[in-house]
# Entry
Amino acid sequence: MGVWVEVVLVDGDPEVADRGIRQLRGELQREFETRDVLVVAPPGSKGDAAAVGAVAVALGGAGGMVPLLIAVLRDWLGRRTRGQRVKLTVGDESIEVDAASPEEQRELVEAFLRRHEVS
# Structure
């Protein structure tokens, strides 16, 4: 069985996050199985919890899936506005990737996913 990686677009504007995650999901669906993620805003936070952008991506056991996910996220982040970042969650652990260089992004995501035996 594969591992589900939750991908959340972190942005201060809920409308931008919602629109952005729909665009990202469209790109991810070309290569991966995806599903909706229910995101609940933390107590006391501002904004509409339903507008938070999130999608889950299935990564199978094939080693080529991690580099492919990294490539899709890197390309997509490169086309986004500065200040946006993507948060990846596997189980109880998360990592956020932002405007780091493409090499730094790849290394961070690869190390994170390998810790969870997603390779």
